[in-house]
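Table S2 (continued). Query chain:
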Amino acid sequence: MIDCMNVEILEVLKEIRDEAKQTNTRLESLEGRVQFVEKRLSSGFDGLTGRLDTYVERLDLITRRQTEGEFRLSSEVLSLADVTREVRDLLSRKLDDHQQVAEHEQRIRALEDRIADRPSD
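Corresponding output:
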């Protein structure tokens, strides 16, 4: 009876050993897959990082260009403001001159009218 029990225990132990070997084989297979996935993820992240770096460079370039454009535009606006002030001052002087000419013409007419109204001697 002890031999029969020992044989049964030995058979159960062999089954456990065989199943452990199968489990180890499956785990080794999974390890290979995990490593494959890790490599793929790593290379994917590297590629993504490279593309993100490219986008950052592009954004930096766009930012620089926009800043330069805004600087040029503000310089032109300031120049235009200076020219506008000069034109305003010139027009103001011309209007003052025009007013003065109009007053002189009025005075000349008044003098001419006085001379015309004098009796001749």
